[in-house]
Here is the input.
Amino acid sequence: DIDDVGRKYHLELVLEDVLDKDGTVNCTAEVLYHLGNKNIAPDVHFTTEGELKNTDEADNVFYNRIKSLEKELVAENIPDSHGNVPPEMEPIRLLAWAAAGYVIWQNSTENTKFQLAQIKHVKQVKRSDEYLEFDYTILLHEMVSQEIIPWQMTVLWHPQHGVQVTQDSPQPKHPSE
Amino acid sequence: MKILLVFAALVAAACNEKLFAGDQVLRVTASDEEQIAQLRMLGEQEELQVDFWRHPTIPGRPADLRVPFRSLQAVKIFLESNSISYSIMIEDVQELVDEEKKTMMMSRRIERSTSTFDFASYHTIEEIYNWMDTLVDNHPSLVSKIQIGESYENRPLYVLKFSTGGSNRPAIWLDTGIHSREWITPATGIWTANKIAEEYGQDPSITAILDSMDIFFEIVTNPDGFAFTHSSNRLWRKTRSINAGSRCVGVDPNRNWDAGFGGPGSSSNPCSETYHGPYPHSESEVKAIVDFISSHGNVKSVISIHSYSQMLLFPYGYKTAPAPHHQELNELAKKAVSDLAAVYGTKYTYGSIVDTIYRADGTTVDWAYDNGVKYSFTFELRDTGRYGFLLPSTQIIPTATETWPALLDIMVHVLEHPY
Here is the structure.
């Protein structure tokens, strides 16, 4: 506890590459949850030791595939009810996961635990520049309250420039949901 | 004629009557026109009730006659005294009818167990309820199906009873699917129920357990919610009961039990996923289990299966004070989790609900524990969030397979520690 500031956690963790089980990276981090205004995201500082598998080739394949689509990509319910993800949608899901990480970070407190539950809808937005843009509606699952929160996020991505969430906002839930 | 016979046979078979006992079918070959005429005359004699399956037409071509048992002697004397050659084609028509009925039933049974229920996919309520009947059919001396009540929308609440006899033996209660979006749980439940039935008599542990104890297994504990996850909203959690004065539907069935009911580990807002309901046991799905366990009076363990998080939990959720049997429950959980991890390396955490996951009031296991059921556990199955509730069906069998030794550990401990 830090008086008048908040609560700081020191963490030592191991990051595991989801796509390469043997790929692990040690990580130390400090997370500071601010006292008072819960609308400020926690401060995070971290260092990593080691390197993860290079994904340039797969990134470029995905990038070129989307860039060359005649019609904008549109998809829904990823994964579907049975947990299935069509292989060509896997990069779309991974991108959402990375972007959702940002949204989760921005909305976390000591009393929340968010996971990405599902991509309800995703639509590609064609751009004239080199970036890929996707408009996602995702469902976040918050563990403590058990709530499912629909969230809209606009995601930009480029193989060399990484992921960016340019806009995001929680969506109202329908009473039947 | 033939149609009437078939119809009569079906009706008789349905009513289990033996309409054709002793009847025979004779193959008769008339050698000239005179014999053809004689056969026709035979058919016209009402009191004999001879039934032509194949009519006499021209000499040399066989005719088939079904002759009722009581007319057999008379018909045979007639044929012999007129030198009409015949042979007995069917010695006893009833035997054939019985044989066929048995074959039909057997093939239906074989079809149901080998068109094989697919344990590696997720199923609808209808499919699960049908499978339950198949399980009972395939293991009639071990498994029976009982109904403990009805859901809000009047769906039957079925429980599979595994018993080798006795009278009100000490029992283990298992439930899956209380939160409808946790599809991996009924899927694991089905595999596990099947495993229990198959392994009795093979696996020493389950055999020892079932030789002295009964197992009660409710697979679809929240059928209304489950149906809703198929028809409308895959991520629905609660029951589907209407909340007076609110547009929001449903009560969290794992906050509706009378143990710390209404506390901060639940919500008083009907729109919330953890809404505890208007009063304890307001939900018929919960009340049915409460009534069952209370009136049974000899339940020694309650194991309630949820997903996701990979945890093995025990009371309490509604208070931070450790349960009186905390140490024993903790040791047992530790062993179970270790045996689970030994299968595929899946890591579980374990401990009391409040220490391990979050404060939760009005839960199944807290109620059970406070009502004398010492060995009360909650499982949170795979995964830890990568797929969450939408766990791929390819993980059903691995999940069930790794959970099995953990369940056995608990059940064996219950067997070996009577109280």
In short: The domain at 24-91 of chain B is CATH 3.30.70.340 (Alpha-Beta Plaits). Chain B touches chain A through 33 residues (CB under 8 Å). Chain B has 13 helices and twelve strands. Residues 40 and 153 of chain B are 63 Å apart (CA to CA).
